[in-house]
Design goal:
Elements (H helix, E strand, L loop, with lengths): L18 E3 L6 E7 L16 E9 L2 E7 H6 L5 E8 L5 E13 L4 E9 L5 H37 L1
Antiparallel strand pairs: 1-3, 2-3, 2-5, 3-4, 4-7, 5-6, 6-7
């Protein structure tokens, strides 16, 4: 019996969808409320709050957003929410349903909230939302690759001088 040990190991992405970080010079905002997208309140009130957050990464499967710490305390894992996501001022918008999956409390009074999109492939509006998300994920991945390539070129130039 002979066993071979690998000479190196690689980490594989286990996610079902490609995920992209929102570039620093882009702003993606999300407003969300309890219940589905069809139960959007006309205004915010203590019994029907609408929270806002800044999206930090997005994929066709879900997104992560940075919000005030108290938002994480107000929602229970597994709860369904409705949401409106806006890509920049005057940019693409989408409405969707999602499920709250997790929260990480940060040291600066903020929290990172994770959401999973629900049923996007089942309706025409959901399919339109998927097209917007796919377009943005591709755009953000291209921008990240471009920044990495130019960052490496700048580092090589700086090292050569």
């Amino acid at each position: 019996l002979a066993l071979n040990c690998p000479t190196h190991m690689e980490r594989l992405q286990r996610r079902a969808y490609f995920r992209a970080a929102v570039p620093e010079n882009h702003i993606v905002r999300v407003s969300f409320w309890l219940g589905g997208r069809d139960s959007e309140p006309t205004g915010t009130s203590p019994d029907r709050p609408v929270w806002t957050a800044v999206v930090t990464d997005v994929s066709a499967g879900g997104f992560q957003a940075r919000a005030a710490e108290d938002v994480a305390m107000a929602i229970d894992v597994g709860e369904a929410i409705g949401l409106r996501m806006t890509f920049g001022s005057g940019g693409d918008k989408l409405y969707a349903d999602a499920q709250f999956r997790h929260a990480d409390i940060l040291t600066d009074g903020k929290s990172l909230l994770g959401f999973q999109f629900l049923g996007l492939a089942q309706t025409n509006d959901g399919k339109a939302a998927l097209r917007v998300i796919s377009k943005k994920v591709s755009e953000y991945q291209r921008l990240e690759l471009h920044a990495r390539i130019h960052g490496k070129k700048m580092q090589a130039t700086a090292q050569a001088s």
